Amino acid sequence: MKKLLIINNVPTPYREFMFTKMSDIGRTFGIDVTVAFQAEREPGRPWKADDFSYSFRHYFSTGMAGKDRRHMYSYGVINRDILHDLACGGYTWAFFSPFMSITNWMAAFLPTRTRKVLWSESNLQSTKHVDPIARFLKSRAIKQFDALACPGIRAVEYLTFLRPSADLMPRLRLPNIVDTNKFLNKVLDFKSQRQQFREKLNIAKDTICVFAIGRFIEIKGFKKVLNVLKNLEGNYLFCLAGDGPERPDYENIILQDRLQNRVRLLGQISEDEVVQWLSISDWFFHPAQKDPSPLVVIEAVNAGMPMAVSLQTGNCPEAVDEGQNGFVFDAYADGQIVETLQKMLTVSSDERTEMSQRSLQKAKDLFNPDIVLDAFYKKLLEFSN
Description:
Blueprint: E1 2-8, H1 13-28, E2 31-37, E3 57-60, H2 80-88, E4 93-96, H3 102-109, E5 115-119, H4 132-143, E6 147-150, H5 153-162, E7 171-173, H6 180-191, H7 194-200, E8 208-213, H8 222-228, E9 236-241, H9 247-256, E10 263-267, H10 271-280, E11 283-286, H11 295-302, E12 307-310, H12 316-319, E13 326-329, H13 334-346, H14 349-366, H15 369-384
């Protein structure tokens, strides 16, 4: 049995399904997957280690002290037990990003029989990369790896920017994946009750409902969108799920621009509620100014949503074909934001149905978990041989 070690910072809802699926499909290829979590929690994140079921082999690092695993994750964390496991060479492959922490930097340069695969979602739009010293160090780190694992073209561009020869390294495609039973089948079920849900939420049949979700922080781009909504013409409702430090600012904009009947702040919502909102909405909107590879975009594709996604979103090239299943725009350009929103409001119901079908086909072709991981493991064994 071959063994794969995945070094990850902390448990998160958006990785639980992925790691479980990687473990299940890995076994069919004779590969045993272990996830090493560097800490239990991360500052600013609401999740706790006890929130997850862990249907995959895993362990929590005891940190530098070697006895307390209930520490917070930070860039400076040193996980000596993870470094020991890697140095012993008991794993066939180790997946991690060297840029995430001091431990990962040390792991990149650690001598070991284990083959190292650089797993990176960063892109030129989402990462500070102008410092020549940092670029030099990252280039040297990339050289220590045997292969790359990237979600899409933007991540590849970033690594080849740091080290041009990275383009010649074996490359594994590993996009974020979601549970299609929830974000495809359940959405389709809910859509059969779409009008009843909308009536219950007091959303008129002819109102164009735009759904967005994310933390209320600057890089998500929501404040910029709210500031231009007063320039938008049409019958629409902008529904924004999430929470964060910018919420008071959003509430002030809504009050000052008299958008109370145009904007709803939904607060933190459950995964089932996300599925419901995707089923009753006409559009999915993602205006992030920086976002490496957001899972919500993959969820929306699987839900068959017409989509508008910013150019600064890392998985935009794979998720959206301009004019086919949605639109792309510059998150920093007010004019493009308004123009895109205005186009969304003028697309006919029949055109939205066609866009929805194209999103579903894209999900089937590019983001089906079984197909993605089958190809991934075949490529992993191929390059190892």
